[in-house]
Amino acid sequence: MLLEFHDVTKRFRGGVVANDHVTLAVDAGEVFGLLGPNGAGKTTLVSQLIGLLIPDSGRITIDGTDVVTRPHHARALCSYQPQAAAPVQGLTARQAIELVGRIRGGAKSEVGKRADQLIAALDLGDIADRTVPMSGGMARLTGFCMAAVVPGRVVVLDEPTNDVDPLRRRALWTCIRQLADDGAAVLLVTHNVLEAERCVDRLAIVAGGKVRASGTPAALKAKLGAPLRLECTIEPELETPVPPASLGPTELTGRRLVVRVELGNVAEAVAWAKAQQDFGVVAEFAVVPASLEDVYASWVEPERLAS
Question: Roughly what angle, to the nearest 10 degrees, separates helices 108-121 and 136-148?
């Protein structure tokens, strides 16, 4: 594996444990998602990777080299988009992108071409050469371009889609995927589970500083045991019906009723939902595969309730 975290632990004053014996590995050519709620320790972990923090114990290696003892190695091999917007006041987006590319050793002509490609891919042409204040989304996209213009062997992206509008967000996911396809190990830090599912090859769910689960999205969803969900929308001002206990666990959010369904119970689930629709209680329903969000909730919600 190109990037490895070996039993990394980090404590802050007051006894707060941000990372508790975290072990992860990310290979070249893959997008690895680090998913968890705010305060789970995700940003603390990547800060140790790039030398902004020193772990209390454990090792972090890139290509076998310990970057805790040799932080200059990490800075040479890692590209990083921080959670905060990059400070580009006084520069145009293009100038900021090309400046970082040159600092990272890119030739002027190649950096210019790459900046043009990123600006076009993310539809930044309207603001690329203007020094007017950027919106939050435009600043995030510019920050991504600064990390991607001359990408390192490891690319760390901390909440890259925050404040980005839906159309550009889709283009951004394509660009992130391309970084891995071009050979980088991409460590994607996010709590946007539904979006991450489109892009990640493997992921780790982090809560309370610990890795609660890791693997491919398909493998983690298979561990849920109930591979399908019956999703029902209840008509306004009507009492929510109670599904048969044989169908599995239920969850109610507003007017949305979700029931986890085993493959052998699909016919019963559909018949029950259709009957409720005929009674005028259910407006619409659908049977859909379990999502990564279900996996995420199964690990994070118990941790949140226990804290």
Answer: 140
Helix, strand, coil percentages, rounded to 5, for the chain: 40, 25, 35
d(CA 23, CA 48): 13
Cα–Cα distance, 305 to 199 (Å, whole number): 29
Whether pLDDT at 306 is above 80 = no
Residues 26-46: tens digit of each pLDDT: 999 999 999 998 889 999 999
DSSP H helices, the chain, are: 42-49, 71-77, 93-103, 108-121, 136-148, 166-181, 193-196, 217-222, 266-278, 292-306
> Do residues 229 and 143 share a domain?
no
The CATH number of whichever domain residue 77 belongs to comes to 3.40.50.300
In a domain, 133, yes or no: yes
Helix (H) or strand (E) holding 232: strand 228-234
Kindly state whether residues 229 and 215 are assigned to the same domain: no
**CB contact at 8 A, 21 and 210:** yes
Cβ neighbours of 143 (radius 10 Å):
28
Residue ranges making up the domain that contains 174: 3-219
Same domain? For 111 and 128 the reply is: yes
Query: In sequence order, what are the beta bridge partners of 11?
Result: 17
Mode of pairing for the β-strands spanning 228-234 and 282-289:
antiparallel
Here the tokens at position 197 are 């599912």
